[in-house]
Amino acid sequence: MHDIVIRGGLIVDGTGAPAVEGDVAIENGKLVAVGGSVGAGREEIDARDRIVTPGWVDIHSHYDGQVTWDPYVSPSGFHGVTTTVMGNCGVGFAPARPDSHDHLINVMEGVEDIPGTALHEGISWGWESFPQYLDVLEAMPRVMDIAAQVPHSAVRDYVMGDRGATRAVATADHVEAMAAIVEQALRAGAIGFSTSRTKLHLAADGSAVAGSFADSTELLAIGQAMARAGHGVFQMVSDLVDPEAEFAWMEQLARQHGVPVHYILVQFEEQPDKWRQLLAMTRRAAQGGADITALVGCRPVGMLINLESRYHPFSEHPSYLAIAHLPLEARIQALQQPELRARLLAEETTSTNRFWRSRMAHFHNMFQLGDPPDYEPPPERSVEAMARASGRRPQEIVLDILAGHGGHDWLYFPFINYADRSLQPLYDMMRHPNTLLSLADGGAHCGLICDASAPSFLLSHWARDRRRGPLLGLEEAVALQSSRGAAAYGLTDRGRLAPGLRADVNVIDFDRLRLQPPRWAHDLPAQGRRLLQHATGYDATIAAGVVTWRHGEATGALPGRLIRAGRRAA
């Protein structure tokens, strides 16, 4: 008698091998049979007309604070994720001196758009060193397994001080101290180290992130510490303004110290073909023996904006400011009045924010998201094209979208990975041999971006619904979201459906898998607000042999634990 039997599903095992029909049996948290026909189970899940996949392994999240208060690790939990790696992009909360808590929250709030009030209210601290942070995380059960990386900004701040660490060159003593902290953290179970080297990342007060200007001496010393610890991935986000110079130290780190280097790769509109150059450099580095991998997403990084957003195309117009205090329904009624509409359309924005002022007029790259959400809209559906076709001003189209559907529709600004007005570059990136699927950003970007639903989008769009280019095979899509990420971080006990491995499983009604429109929720501590996006089609998610979600609802089971790399992950 097995603990759980998943009966008669189409098994997509995560390796990329062709799917097969059969049963899956689970005992004591492990897979004991995959395929064929098995005996009875104490609990049986009918998977006929369903696909059975590994639980998703998400290698890019920012739950560093949230995991100290939220056992459900939402929203990734209800998108089939059973393992997540946090501490990306060089930001996090350990090590932390007692007087640096406000500063670390300031950095996280600015870089990852997580409400500072929620972090202040939700994090109880109780640690100073990174090993102590891991101890705190280990004491709390969760719906999924979590793994933590050591953030460069926190390490540098700890050694050099909150303000001195931003642009200062580290002395030899500073470098030695930082390397020791990283080695200590890895030996305690950290799964990697991360750093940020991009001008896009600023703290909430506008200051740069510590480590952004670190020289190669400092980075190579940290790589040497990682080599001494014997494991760990070096994860990085960088503008790669000088790719040759950046790749020089990346290759040295990877070859000399044997440390895998992961860097984030995206397409910017200003340099729409640079990603091709970077991938060519990545391939050459790999062929030369350097373990360097580009981290890529599966959909555009897109801002979502409606009347409830802090900024929208009319938010700084005098006539809108006069009604901004009204409840949403009252604002919509006001915006339907011809007199107010005419005034709004005749006015100019009073915004002095250069970022928002310019982007709110990018009508060629502004779309109606719709229901179901369309993340690959064609150029002819841009606000600019719709205005041209109808003989109206783009602002009129925008106002109709914002005030329609009860104010719950969205303007969609795909400002990264959409320079071609299609997802073909992402298709090519995902299928490249030197890339890994990443960038779901669970827990982050609460007010503008809602990409934690990326695993569900990967299956529904790329393996089934795409019409503007080729599809991914179902088996390929599943492997991208499971075994490949797990293997990259040395998590060899998961990411595949095979006897003896951890029983992390999704049972999915593939035909019904749908993303719902994003919505606002005030469910963070201190009534903090964030964007959430649910999906239909997940019949069940199983973690460590326990059903954690049924049809989008948590069961209350919390089998997830902290992964201590080099120990349980070995």
UniProtKB/TrEMBL annotation:
UniProt key word Protein transport: no
UniProt entry tagged with the keyword Hydrolase: yes
Entry's transmembrane regions: none
Keywords: Hydrolase
One Pfam family named in its UniProt record: Amidohydro_3
Signal peptide residues on this chain, from the entry's feature table: none
Family matches, as CDD domains: D-aminoacylase
Gene Ontology cellular-component annotations: cytosol
Amidohydrolase domain boundaries: 43-547
A molecular-function term among this protein's GO annotations: hydrolase activity, acting on carbon-nitrogen (but not peptide) bonds, in cyclic amides
Source superkingdom: Bacteria
Family annotation (InterPro entries): Amidohydro_3, Metal-dep_hydrolase_composite, Metal_Hydrolase, Metallo-dep_Hydrolases_sf
Protein name: Amidohydrolase family protein
Organism: Vineibacter terrae
Taxonomic classification: Bacteria, Pseudomonadati, Pseudomonadota, Alphaproteobacteria, Hyphomicrobiales
